[in-house]
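Handoff note, outgoing to incoming analyst
You'll be picking up this chain. Sequence as last confirmed:
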Amino acid sequence: MGANLPSYLWFTIYSVTEPMTTLPLPLYLGPQLPRWQPRTAADVQAAIDNGTLTERHWLDVKLTLGGSSHNKEIACDLASYANDGGALIYGVSEDKASQTLSLAPIDLAGQAERIDEIARSRCDPPLYVACHPLPIDPNDRSRGLLLVEIPPSPASPHMVDGRYYGRGDTTRRKLTDPEVARLHAVRTMRQLSAEQLIEQEIARDPVPPQLRKLSHIYVVARPLATPPDLLAEAIENRALGDMVRGLNHKLGTPASPHWGYLESEEPRAAGWGFRSYRMFGGRPES
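Most recent structure output, in case you need it:
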């Protein structure tokens, strides 16, 4: 293989547009809190009892869906979560005076279909959501709670009747022009193809072409959205490096180069970099 023609392994990761399971994904509730995966109405009640279930940037509770006149409000709520991801739970009553929550089951028939129709027809571009009915009685699925999961959308921001919405600390708000412009810029960046991302990584290879005598593997993964504290602890205590090097023991060494070659690591503006060459005085050395 020519020294100036490094080969590369090209991974393409596609976002899932249809649910792969009927169970909700573990929900992010904020820093220092474990992810929450409610599977039953009893799980929601337990979260109320232990104080986990409170209105947050990523989570809100509603008493009912209301009639058809509330469809726009529902669309605005859904669109506001599409930027960072989040969830809505219908069938929970909030006492403003005492700041307490309690279960208030709703009729579930047709509600998931209604939410899906609103997300696809009232949000522009159409928004994907996943609805999870949580019956109060396992033997009677007609009444209970409705958990609506809104994953971070690669097409955000989503417009409703000419306006864009986002989430504040605990409430919905209209986005400003600069915020809308920033989100549109992020959307444009997401449209970069996998090939372009790989080409960018090849261009930043610290090893000069004349020293590339072995095959090079380039792997790039870019999330649609991330919690603000994602991997912060792993980066701070250098556990991320141990995790990456641990891949060598799981994957083995069927080919060269392999994960075991990653001897050097460095912080980067957009994350953490690992390479098989150590850098001394700005020059790569094996």
